[in-house]
Specification:
alpha+beta
Length: 427
């Protein structure tokens, strides 16, 4: 009975296409074409075009095909169009190479420019089926501990919690038992940990206690929706809607959600990259777009891709604090081993990197899910990546390794060209 009620609640968040435009205007969507005085008409046109493009090219993108020419229906007429993508050829080849080399049972890598939303790489792999659908577009994966980013954002931005905030908890680090989560008794066995370290090490019970002590269910629900759970993502390619159910009262169920220790909340790699991008981009959400332009046979532009943002999730000050948590993850947390080579590489000392891992057994596809969502930035550039692998029995690669490999591929040529300046400033 409980599962049935949850399903009904989730359905309440599914908006129809007709109502989306009014919703987007209320939520603060803006377009790069009119930053100073955003035009609702231009935004609505962009949204309508994105929705249409996602439908007419959806089958191709879901099949991991990126045609340069295609016959489509546009404004009621058949058109032979030329498609220009935002994809970076070098990054796409690297993502493809990584997945084909390590051969996880299932794997996907999705990278975007965190400031513009341009899709830089979109690679999908299934070991036993080369023709399998694009996993980047599926929201069938449990969000797992990646949802701790939502919880941490709510704690920092709404409750005013700092990275050094102390959390007391009883029990193990990676389990989640009701008797420990709901207990506020302090004994000689009680653990004390900072929010920064609890996030970096992904301590479930600590995040359960954080939700009970510092947050209300409506806070968690609010920030889940700010990160675009429970609503359609208006990209110009098809992507499933991520869902997040937050129980109405405080208790063990809230602790499960806050720590990511449940299978109800799900998301796609596309949304994972958007989450990391929002943190890197000072709290501002950018919606990915795949097409630079679509032109007709005469070379006239039918569609021009542009940046679309959904306001801000949090203040810039709060985003800086969440970045501290994510930096700690790659330096001393759950992804430290994967990032150790690049963190210790002097050439990358001026590149700020952060991330969050997540692990949980999923059922679609069935297997052990391993997430990494993260960002890398310097003074001029910001990128975000989501990497996911699902394995039935044996690991072939950690998703955090895939993430750091993509960061190295992107920033490697840049830091090599700036080698003299980097070494000089590091003295």
């Amino acid at each position: 009975m409980r599962a049935k009620n949850k399903y009904k609640l989730l359905k309440l968040f599914a908006f129809s296409g007709a109502s989306l435009f009014a919703l987007y205007s209320l939520m603060g969507f803006t377009s790069s074409e009119s930053q100073e005085a955003p035009s609702l008409k231009k935004i609505q046109t962009q949204l309508e075009q994105r929705t249409h493009i996602a439908k007419v090219v959806g089958e191709k993108i879901r099949s991991n095909q990126f045609p340069e020419k295609l016959d489509i229906n546009w404004d009621g007429e058949g058109q032979s169009v030329k498609l220009a993508y935002t994809i970076d050829e070098g990054l796409q080849k690297e993502a493809d190479r990584l997945l084909k080399s390590y051969k996880p049972d299932y794997g996907a890598i999705f990278m975007i420019d965190a400031m513009t939303g341009e899709v830089l790489a979109m690679s999908s792999f299934q070991r036993d089926n080369p023709s399998a659908p694009n996993l980047n577009l599926q929201a069938t994966f449990p969000a797992a501990s990646v949802f701790k980013v939502v919880t941490a954002t709510a704690a920092v931005d709404k409750a005013g919690v700092n990275p050094e905030h102390k959390i007391r908890y009883n029990g193990g680090a990676y389990t989640l038992y009701k008797k420990n989560v709901l207990s506020d008794k302090v004994t000689r066995w009680t653990n004390v940990i900072s929010l920064k370290d609890a996030f970096a090490r992904s301590i479930n019970t600590a995040f359960g206690r954080l939700s009970i002590e510092n947050l209300h269910p409506e806070d968690l629900n609010e920030y889940a929706n700010r990160y675009m759970f429970n609503q359609e993502i208006p990209a110009d390619f098809p992507v499933d809607m991520g869902v997040a159910y937050v129980p109405p009262g405080k208790g063990f169920e809230l602790a499960e959600v806050a720590s990511g220790y449940n299978k109800t909340n799900r998301m796609s790699p596309v949304q994972g990259a958007m989450i990391a991008a929002a943190v890197a981009n000072g709290g501002q959400v950018v919606v990915p777009y795949l097409f630079n332009s679509i032109e007709d046979e005469k070379g006239s532009a039918l569609y021009q891709g542009s940046t679309l943002t959904n306001g801000t999730i949090m203040t810039k000050e709060s985003a800086a604090k969440v970045r501290q948590l994510m930096e700690q993850t790659v330096v001393a947390g759950t992804s430290r081993r994967s990032f150790r080579p690049i963190v210790r590489d002097r050439k990358f000392r001026e590149i700020e990197m952060g991330g969050k891992t997540g692990h949980l057994t999923g059922d679609n596809p069935r297997g052990r899910v391993d997430w990494f969502v993260g960002y890398a930035l310097d003074d001029e550039r910001k990128i975000a990546v989501a990497a996911i692998t699902v394995n039935k029995k044996f690991w072939t690669v950690k998703s955090a390794h895939l993430g750091q490999s993509m960061f190295r591929k992107y920033f490697g040529p840049i830091v090599s060209n700036q080698k003299g300046r980097v070494i000089s400033s590091a003295k």
